[in-house]
Design brief:
It is a single chain. The chain has a domain of about 70 residues. It is about 40% helix and about 25% strand. The chain has 11 helices and 10 strands. The strands form 2 sheets. It has a 6-stranded mixed β-sheet, sandwiched between helices. Strands 2-1-4-5 form a 4-stranded antiparallel β-sheet, with helices on one face. The longest helix is centred in the C-terminal third of the chain and has 18 residues. Keywords: ATP-binding, Cell membrane, Membrane, Nucleotide-binding, Transport. It holds the Pfam family ABC_tran. GO terms for molecular function: ATP binding; ATP hydrolysis activity.
Length: about 260
């Protein structure tokens, strides 16, 4: 399955925050949306799944496997979210319910989309926790979000998003709030899961060094517009836009390994 975004425009009140964004994610591809805060990358991701905040209006085209999904009723989009397209947010605290065990939260989407019994979904939740390398999964599924570390909470959020084996995962700055060691572990986890499942990936970040570890193609945004689109190797070796050049300078000021996502 493939994603095609064409001429996506988002207005909040009388302010245009995304202006004619277009890109494609072929089946099995790993594409990065990169830009500074306010560039429109996260709003673009939210528009794909019909999750824009109140007061925001989107126009243009978002086609998933040839089907137009921009503007679909929420009930129809809910059937796609989690089942065909998953999403992981930057801060799992906002995605996890503090008064439910993490196992129950992982099992919920499985029950909704696959119709499993409560018992079978609970067993699957343990298997999904193990799949994202959570320690002692039989015990950890009985814990609440506040009882887990930041890295563990992000692994739970990933398990929730991938439990129904979506064909596309949108990861919106999923490592920004984590320390460098945990960040590397989460990137490696996402990359291995994408490869194992043959899943497409849209990875959103402001950090070109991070993007180099996981994506093979990059779309650079500035003030709601695409200013450059190219293979990651080209963005790293010969950036054409001033924005990408600045992102590259910021990236080379950190410890990183260019071209990590082969």
């Amino acid at each position: 399955m493939s994603l095609e975004v064409r001429g996506l425009t988002i207005d909040i009140g009388d302010r245009r925050v995304v202006d004619g964004v277009s890109f494609a994610v072929p089946d099995g591809a790993r594409v990065g949306l990169i830009g500074e805060s306010g560039s429109g990358k996260s709003l673009t991701a939210l528009a794909i799944l019909g999750l824009l905040p109140d007061g925001a209006a989107a126009s243009g085209s978002v086609r998933w496997n040839g089907r137009e999904i921009l503007g679909l009723p929420d009930r129809e989009l809910a059937e796609i979210r989690g089942d065909e397209i998953g999403i992981v947010f930057q801060e799992p605290r906002t995605a996890l319910n503090p008064i439910r065990t993490v196992g129950r939260q992982i099992a919920e989407s499985i029950r909704i989309h696959e119709g499993l019994s409560k018992r079978d979904a609970a067993a699957r939740a343990v298997a999904e926790a193990s799949r994202v390398a959570l320690p002692d999964p039989d015990r950890i599924v009985a814990r609440y979000p506040h009882q887990l570390s930041g890295g563990q909470r992000q692994r739970v959020a990933i398990a929730m998003s991938l439990a129904c084996r979506p064909r596309l995962l949108i990861a919106d700055e999923p490592t920004t709030a984590l320390d460098v060691t945990i960040q590397a572990e989460i990137l490696e986890l996402l990359l291995s899961l994408a490869r194992d499942d043959g899943m497409s990936l849209v990875f959103i970040t402001h950090d070109l060094a991070v993007l180099s570890q996981i994506a093979t193609h990059g779309v650079v945004l500035e003030q709601g517009r695409v200013v450059e689109e190219a293979p990651l190797s080209q963005l790293l070796s010969a950036p054409a836009s001033v924005v990408t050049q600045e992102l590259l300078r910021d990236a080379t000021a950190t410890l990183w390994r260019p071209g990590g996502a082969e």
